[in-house]
Amino acid sequence: MTICIVDTSIFCNVLDVPGFNQAKSRILASLHQFIDQRYTLLLPLAAVFETGNHIAHVTDGRERRSSAERFVRQVRLAIVREAPWTPTPFPDQMELNQWLGTFPDEAMWGVGMADLSMIKAFERQCELHRARRTFIWSLDQHLSGYDRAAIT
Fold it and tell me: Which residues contact 63 (CB under 8 A, 6 or more apart)?
């Protein structure tokens, strides 16, 4: 089994957010394949927040509203485990404090807090599930490189 961490760039395409949906058909085809192959799809809180921010900046009001409604529906379904993805756990205070401790160095490499939280989710899944392939599904090159094969 494979663990897939869904990045903002993917979630925006799935939700068909105007201006962030250039790869929609390819992403939806991959999503159907991942579901058929029974991948565990995880939706990080950072992807939820970032997607919501992108939706809030859609210029056409009707498209903004319909995107926001699709977004709310999918996140609510994820919370009750009726979507293809499951939200990742919220970091506790100690974990967030550890992330903050590494952030100045990460920022020097151009890694923001949202991306750092996705990388930390990736690392956590790698530790918890060594026998499973784990990867970040992203259109962003700096995140798509996080792909660890199963360790047998």
Answer: 18
Domain that holds residue 8: 2-148
- Work out how many domains the chain is built from and give that number: 1
Tokens coding 6: 């869904």
Torsion angle of the four alpha carbons 56, 28, 130, 112, in this order, in degrees rounded to the nearest 10: -30
pTM for this model (two decimals): 0.92
Q: What residues have CB less than 8 Å from 54, skipping those under 6 apart? A: 8, 12, 17, 19, 20
CATH number of the domain bearing residue 36: 3.40.50.1010
Q: Tell me the per-residue pLDDT of 40-92, one tens digit each, with 9 for 90 and over.
A: 999 999 999 999 999 999 999 999 999 999 999 999 999 999 999 999 988 88
Neighbouring-strand partners of residue 40: 3
Quick one: tokens of 44?
């990080």
Q: How many CA atoms lie within 13 A of 73 on its CB side?
A: 8
Q: Which residue has the tokens 């990867």?
A: 135
Helix (H) / strand (E) containing 136? strand 133-137
**How far is it, in rounded angstroms, from Cα 108 to Cα 150?**
31
Half-sphere exposure of 24 (CA within 13 A, CB side): 11
